[in-house]
Amino acid sequence: MRFVADVHLHSRHSRATSKELNPENLFKWSALKGVNVVGTADFTHPEWLAELKEKLEPAEEGLFRLKPEVAAPVEAELPNTCRGAVRFLLSVEISSIYKKNDRTRKVHNVVILPDFASADELNRRLGAIGNLKSDGRPILGLDSRDLLEICLEVCEDVLFIPAHIWTPHFAALGSSSGFDSLEECYEELLPHIPAVETGLSSDPPMNRRLSALDRFAVVSNSDAHSPRKLAREATCFDTELSYPGILSALRDRDPKRFTGTLEFYPEEGKYHYDGHRKCGVCWKPEQTLAAAGLCPECGRKLTVGVLHRVEKLADRPEGVDAESESRPEFEYLIPLAEVISSSVGVGPNSKKVQTIYHALLGALGPELDVLRMATPDEIAACGQLIVAEGVRRMRAGQVHIEPGFDGEFGRIQVFSKEELVELEGQGRLFEMPREVLPSTEEIDAAAVVQEIATDPGDGQRVETLLDSGEAIAQLPSRPGRVDASGGELDEEQWRGGAAKDGPVVVVAGPGSGKTRTLTHRIAYLILQRGVDPGRITAVTFTNRAAGEMVKRLSILLPATPGSPSAVRVGTFHRLALDLTRLLGRTERPVILDALEAREVLTAAIQEASSPLQAASAQEQISRLKADGLSPEDVAEDGEAALAAVYRAYQERLSTFGACDFDDILLDFLKLLEADAAALARVREHTEYLLVDEFQDVNAVQYRLVKLMAGQGSGLFVIGDPNQAIYGFRGADPGYFQSLRQDFPAACQVKLGRNYRSEEHIIRAAAGVIGSGDGLRATRVAVGLPGPSLEEPAPHPLPATASLRIRLLTAASELAEGIAVVREVSRLVGGSDMNQADLGTDPGLELAGKEGQYAFGDIAVLFRTGRQAEVLEECFLKEGLPYRLIGQRGFMEAASVRQALAFCRYLTERPSIWRLLEAVRSGPFQIGQQGRAMLLECWMSGGARGVELTRLSEEIPGRERKALQALAEAAKRYRPFAQESRPDDLLRQWQAEYGGEKGEDDDAFGRLIDVAAGADYLEGMLNTVLLGQEADLERSGNRFGTRSRPRGQIEAVRLMTMHAAKGLEFPVVLICGVEDGLVPLTEEGRAGDEEEERRLLYVALTRAREEVVMFRARSRMRHGKRLTPEVSRFVNNIPVELLLEMEADNQRRERSHQLSLF
Q1: Considering the entire predicted model, what is its pTM?
Q2: Which among 466, 405, 394 has a CA at the least distance from the CA of 432?
């Protein structure tokens, strides 16, 4: 059966599309156009998928049709000549933006599936990676190769087609963000791709110049954003009308079944020629080459068009084809409305053109029949002599075309104005050959480059690439820069890493290679000193940092069996638990999370009849424990009320055999101080003790370090007092000085070089930190190296935006969030076609950096968790992939508490506390009276009280049934917990016990996101319990692939400034740089301004290349609308390094405004 297919298009749920794109109008316009198989588009969008399921029904295998009751009123509107069968194929275009081989890649792929079950499963997989609700064409930070792998796992018969493969900004072979070969993009999975799509700016002869494409069927589709744009390109078949028929014809590339394509004239596509739309420059490839790729007007890099890109990658001359293989045919078409428009001299959407259009369809059949099959005489017989001649000229290629370039569609004319006048007046038709009109006069491109290069104000404009990809000039590296990630250590790092005797105290500024020095110290001890790895312990402050340290050690010690794993690496709390177990104390106490501990504390406050508030008391007690103070110590200080609550709290914890997070270290300290034998055994494993981020230790941790280090000969500490930002937890950078006093012979090393940040960032950070009197004193006391305001910059800084810190001011917190997502889109070169076409605001002068970043290169930092809410809303609405680091608020949701209580009951040793929590609420709830009965039975049972399985026999009525249901559920889930991933277990729990979806359904989804980062249930529970803020990541990436595991999907990181400690990114966006947030002031609480200053210093120094700060003129805080001033710390940044801008002044055309507006 002969039929025409157009499967790449969009629904009304995609950005910048017509509201008319619904199933009914797709059916209607497919019939009018003569398309027999049309893609549904956008099946990843939940609302659209639901509408498709409601309105479509199965037809031939893998195809669908409108249900009769839906189709009938639409068919009634169609002329009899256009009432052909229309079938739907489930399709979607997916945008992948990611980094590969050190370049940002932006690739669109079309995915086609044969059934709704497969679509549902793919949506489940992709929905765990990115946001599918915000855009019909989802944006994912997912490698195209990994997307293909997921699709194949979902359905081995998936039809996966790289979309418009030559488009500069979003295509596999695109000049701006693509690859030089499909093999580089899709790797070993390339054989699973049967077809590629040409795009509007290329045609089959252009594609045949690349022999690498011989193995693929080269198809065409409209990529329509409105129903009327259907079939402007399409693919023709003569095969069985079914999904398998289409797939087989493409896989076999049989020209008898895959018969050809219907094509735009490629010059009409909007990326055919090179150019710069904002300057009106439209060039042929040879002109671009002669000008070294520079725009003659502004000096910026030109957009390299499809013709140029094909010329670069082609391995065949123009006009030469593979001789031994027959090819499908192709035809050039111009949409009928445009032919009529050119024939009558008015716009294609005018009433006159539309009247002629529908009259021709009513007389001759669908549009494609009129354009391809109707004779000029038949068209003329309808009273359209000039239109008949226009169709003849189209078929003969006798047209005028102004080529498209840089996002601007080409202009095609069948008749000139003069010819229309002559035709109307004389009725004579003149032959006219097809020609491409020159868009610009030939210029001396070399002279243009010379002019730019010699202009004293345009030094940066020469920084560009030749078409061959080789730089015309190499900018020198910053003097003295050393690669801190590889090669040899610098002199200062080597002194620290290879110091013979300890203690070694290393004071290291940001980006100076702290982790590198510490891991090389471990390698030095093992490889050069012959130290047994089991005698080495390294302490970090986050599980993430511990994982990074282990990873680096495995690289440094690859040929030393067991060495990386034998070295103990972990947080203080993790190591305390492990070493306690090593001492033979295998019964780990029941460790309560913060919410459980607050519940116990609330009861203690009631018991003590105290007026204290639970939240405030919990914070005070935590700080007391960090300082190593007992209830008796507090009582001696005159805090009788707090001491009473503290004592009652500890007694209740003891009753349940439980402890809180702070007790882990306090109990371990008491053990080592009281038991000399235990201390001796611990020292066997901590003879060489290395402590990272030493500025963050508190009193208890410092006492532990001294105990475990003994005489200190193996002690190594490293940190930066200017990055001390945890004073509210009891941390004190003064322990640097204490260590020097306790160990007078300590070796001191200073790491002063910042290998991370560009010079303007270093100088800006120095301005912030150098203005604090207390910090200058700290620098003198500990000998802190690093930049100083008094030190002149070694090189003058050009006054371009990319070499200054930008401060964008927005009207409100929502406007600030919009400005942030807009900035992210700019950094990646536009997250969709429209944004990419707009380019960069010329006023920013970003030295060509826009589009060089991927989502994973960008971090958004903020001061408080409250700020994250607006930012998340903006990222969700814009459909940009992100990960939220930290933010535990979702753990208070009832659904999350119930699931965690059950999971802990499953995995931990039997305890009355875990049983009481499991029956507190949810499916096994027994009520407060029932819990009291349960506790009483347990307490009265003596030694038998711990035999929890017998308790249900002693509890009557409904409560007994609930306990029996809990026991039955635990029996079923325990094997599942051992064999399955924790996120899968949680989904099973939610399906079985989740009940009606409500307000905290999203919170439960966030728990699943966290669980996706763990391989087993106990690991997930430990992350929730023991992890610091930086360890708790909602990645959204619940599914990995064989080649790209969880956590490696490209996404912007959103986190507090505290959570960013220890991390680094090419680009950092800092939100809320206002007094009241930076520094933070809370009602009724005095903040530590110097610590707040250090916090901004930490935020700035997370960036390698670019920093953008944001502030809002108006912000809601404490229930009031405030108008804060810019942060006082910003005033300490040298004025030549700061560029202040209005966020609303970053100009955008109205039609391309973000959807948030």
Answers
A1: 0.78
A2: 394
